[in-house]
């Protein structure tokens, strides 16, 4: 059974027509499907928990953006008999870009209807929180808080928030632990990637692959105000290795310990207060529909 999980408020006008396009693809492929609507935060997770708790073989389809697929992966119970597909339909489609899923809804639906899923990785914290694309803390969290608190709209909202944060954000102290090492940092960003990009197209992890069995760890230490804009232009272009103040390695697990007890982390743009980043890569457990 194929379950299409979509936000009700996005299925009006053009959204309604695109859903019909997706339905036509599955009907032409002879697939049995059901559309499940979400109306509030957490609905997609509840749908995923219910469907994947059964013994049946099911495919869950996130017809949405990074937030929808984040909720679904955190509701997954049975990874052996349940699979995940994505039809990009959100404001932020960073994971879709990392996975190579086309933005065209018909083409994305055809991948799910006619191809077999393949194993990919995801990130899991000691708290149980999962992230399919990236997780981190620092200036990326500050950017998201500005976007959400000011109710910014439009595709340029992340860029506008980024510019403001670059001017006002202050670095913070934390300890990084990985591969038997322990390092002190005074950083702007501490992040882990499974996908290549986050924040609406910022390529923080240009060498990341969603099926290579590695976390891509990125630390950006203090950068002076005079140099910070140039550094972030390099980050956005996927040239983090060209920045002097960057730690950039692949690892299986990592932990960030902040000196500040009150902090926030982000995963696929969703914010979580006081959630420790003690992470590991979960290799090949999720079966996902790739081009």
Q: How helix-rich are the residues, as a percent range?
A: 25-40%
Unreliably modeled segments: none
Number of strands: 15
Structural class by secondary-structure content: alpha+beta
Mean pLDDT comes to 90
| Shape summary | globular
Largest sheet: 11 strands, antiparallel
- Note the beta-strand portion: 25-35%
Number of helices: 8
Q: State the end-to-end CA separation.
A: 20 Å
**SSE order in H/E notation?**
EHEHEHEHHEEEHHEEEHEEEEE
Quaternary organisation of the protein chains = single chain
Radius of gyration: 19 Å
Q: TL;DR of this structure?
A:
The chain is of the alpha+beta class. It has helices at residues 14-28, 43-52, 66-75, 94-99, 105-114, 139-149, 157-168, 225-236; strands at 2-7, 33-38, 58-64, 82-88, 118-125, 130-131, 134-138, 172-178, 181-193, 215-221, 246-251, 253-258, 264-267, 270-273, 277-288.
Topology:
Layout: E1 2-7, H1 14-28, E2 33-38, H2 43-52, E3 58-64, H3 66-75, E4 82-88, H4 94-99, H5 105-114, E5 118-125, E6 130-131, E7 134-138, H6 139-149, H7 157-168, E8 172-178, E9 181-193, E10 215-221, H8 225-236, E11 246-251, E12 253-258, E13 264-267, E14 270-273, E15 277-288
Parallel strand pairs: 1-2, 1-3, 3-4
Antiparallel strand pairs: 5-6, 5-15, 7-9, 7-13, 8-9, 8-12, 9-10, 10-11, 12-15, 13-14
Based on the model shown, name its key terms.
four-stranded parallel sheet; alpha+beta; 291 residues
Task: Give a description of the structure.
There is one protein chain. Helices cover 30% and strands 34% of the residues. With 291 residues, it is α+β, with helices and mostly antiparallel strands. A hairpin with a 4-residue loop joins strand 5 and strand 6. Helix 1 runs parallel beside helix 5 and helix 6 packs across helix 7. It starts with a strand and ends with a strand.
């Amino acid at each position: 059974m194929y379950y299409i999980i979509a936000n009700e408020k996005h299925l009006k006008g053009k959204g309604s027509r695109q859903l019909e396009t997706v339905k036509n693809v599955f009907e032409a492929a002879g697939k049995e499907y059901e559309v499940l609507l979400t109306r509030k935060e957490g609905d997609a997770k509840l749908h995923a928990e219910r469907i994947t708790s059964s013994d049946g073989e099911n495919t869950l389809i996130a017809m949405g953006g990074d937030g929808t697929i984040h909720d679904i992966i955190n509701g997954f119970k049975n990874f052996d008999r349940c699979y995940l597909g994505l039809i990009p339909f959100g404001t932020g489609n960073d994971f879709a870009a990392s996975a190579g899923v086309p933005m065209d809804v018909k083409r994305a639906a055809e991948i799910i209807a006619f191809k077999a899923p393949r194993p990919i990785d995801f990130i899991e914290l000691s708290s149980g929180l999962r992230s399919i694309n990236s997780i981190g803390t620092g200036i990326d969290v500050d950017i998201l808080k500005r976007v959400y608190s000011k109710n910014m709209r439009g595709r340029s909202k992340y860029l506008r928030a980024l510019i403001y944060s670059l001017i006002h954000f202050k670095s913070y102290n934390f300890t990084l632990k990985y591969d038997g090492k322990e390092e002190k940092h005074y950083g702007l960003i501490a992040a882990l990637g499974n996908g290549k990009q986050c924040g609406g197209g910022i390529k923080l992890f240009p060498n990341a692959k969603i099926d290579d069995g590695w976390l891509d760890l990125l630390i950006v230490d203090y950068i002076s105000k005079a140099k910070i804009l140039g550094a972030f232009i390099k980050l956005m272009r996927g040239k983090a290795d060209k920045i002097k103040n960057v730690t950039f390695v692949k690892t299986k697990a990592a932990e960030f310990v902040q000196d500040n007890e009150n902090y926030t982390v982000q995963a696929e743009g969703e914010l979580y207060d006081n959630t420790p980043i003690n992470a590991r890569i979960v290799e090949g457990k999720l079966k996902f529909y790739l081009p």
